[in-house]
Amino acid sequence: MDKDASKQNFSSIDKLRQIMARLRDPVHGCEWDVAQNFSSIAPFAVEEAYEVVDAIEQQDMEELKNELGDLLLQVVFHSQMASEENLFTFDDVADAICEKMIRRHPHVFKDNDADTTSAYIADNWERIKATERSKKKSNDSGTLAGIAKSLPALTRARKIQERAARTGFDWSDTAGPRAKIDEELAEVDNATDRENLIEEIGDVLFTVTTFARHHGIDAEQALKISNEKFESRFKTMENIAGGDISPLSLPEKEDLWIAAKKHEKSMKSDK
């Protein structure tokens, strides 16, 4: 790709691919881009995905456009490195997802008379995914196979539980996981050492995720809301105090917390 290629009459995606190929050129490319590998840029893919979600939650469409571009760059970057090693190309990636979408939507692309209710589509989607997992060249093709270990822990817990629940291994209502929370908290109180304490607290979080799931709530999203609420209240505490609250006594900080909560309520009532 010559220096003026970015101005040539390529489609946008072809232009991006040409730019990435130039950046990876061992002689004429960018030293940083050439030095990267799959592992070194993997964290950026996760980061960009989160920034896409942030833009959506902020309802900032201009920022969403930019963040989707950053996420697309990660796909092109990985595909370029793979093509250099003759593993696969960007076109292979696109072909694979096209085939998967057609395969997973038989009610759209194959059987026009199929049941199109949401429940049927969701169940059929999972059946097709299970069939795909069983055909993969892996030693693990069981119910829980293929759940990414790099997912946020609460999200992964929910996915594990949902897979297990499809086999019938689940509580029938919210009473079961609610009672289990008390049981796990008692085990936290009786922990014998730090390693045991970590394990028992993990069990509490896993069970709370189950409890949330039975209420139709995503524990990851619920915790995110609580994080934002605490952050907002803490900032209000600092604003009321006029700065750093570290020198204040705990009772004074608790008074500020109460004042911050009252401020939050008044702001909501004004809307």
Topology:
Blueprint (H helix, E strand, L loop, with lengths): L11 H12 L7 H5 L2 H20 L3 H24 L5 H15 L1 H4 L8 H18 L17 H13 L9 H15 L4 H21 L4 H23 L8 H21 L1
InterPro entries: MazG-like_dom (IPR004518), NTP-PPase_MazG-like_C (IPR048011), NTP-PPase_MazG-like_N (IPR048015), NTP_PyrPHydrolase_MazG (IPR011551)
Pfam family, one: MazG
Organism: Zymomonas mobilis
Which descriptors would you attach to this protein?
single chain; 271 residues; mainly alpha; Helix Hairpins; 3 domains; 0% strand; NTP-PPase_MazG-like_N; ATP diphosphatase
Describe this structure in words.
The longest helix is centred in the N-terminal third of the chain and has 24 residues. With 271 residues, this protein is mainly alpha-helical. The protein is 70% helix and 0% strand. The mean pLDDT is 90. The protein contains twelve helices and no strands. The chain folds into three domains: 100 residues, Orthogonal Bundle (Helix Hairpins), CATH 1.10.287.1080; 59 residues, Orthogonal Bundle (Helix Hairpins); 50 residues, no CATH class. Helix 9 runs antiparallel to helix 10.
CA distance, first residue to last residue? 55 Å
Which stretches of 5+ consecutive residues score pLDDT under 50?
A: none
Number of domains: 3
CATH architecture of the largest domain: Orthogonal Bundle
CATH superfamily of the largest domain: MazG-like
- Main sheet summary: none
Structural class assignment = mainly alpha
Kindly provide the name of the CATH class of the largest domain. Answer: Mainly Alpha
User: What is the CATH topology classification name of the largest domain?
Assistant: Helix Hairpins
Q: How much beta, percentage-wise? A: under 5%
Radius of gyration: 25 Å
Number of strands: 0
Enumerate how many helices there are, as a single number: 12
Secondary-structure element order, as H and E? HHHHHHHHHHHH
Molecular shape: globular
Mean pLDDT score:
90
Portion in helices:
over 70%
